[in-house]
Here is the input.
Amino acid sequence: MSEQIKSKEEWYDECVALQQEGELPQAIAELKKLLEVYPDYALGYLALAVFSQEKGDDQGTLEAMEKACALEQEDPFYFTAFSSLAIKCGNRELAEEALMKAQEARFELQLRKMNELRKEELKAREKESSESENGAESADE
Here is the structure.
């Protein structure tokens, strides 16, 4: 029989539990296995970055965060985390760049929300206008 693959969330939780139990090398190894099966799992890369930083692997930390941010380009949280980890790794330039990207992502998110609200407002006005025109036509009959 074939072994059933765990969900990425279940596997992630197991990796976090290993790290919390002090089994950092095993947690990192499991995260790497998880990411082979689920290569688009940004949260897995974030955890790998945090665990790698805890281990003192600056290169591994930054590489994992780059992958996480590439997967979540519109989420300011990932860039903010990248900035924080880059500071811990002693890379101020990369930290500043990541922080700028976080701010850009926040701005883009706010613009999208404003545009959505504006579209909703325009639809509501069109509906009101249409209803008032229909009401006027009914009164004329």
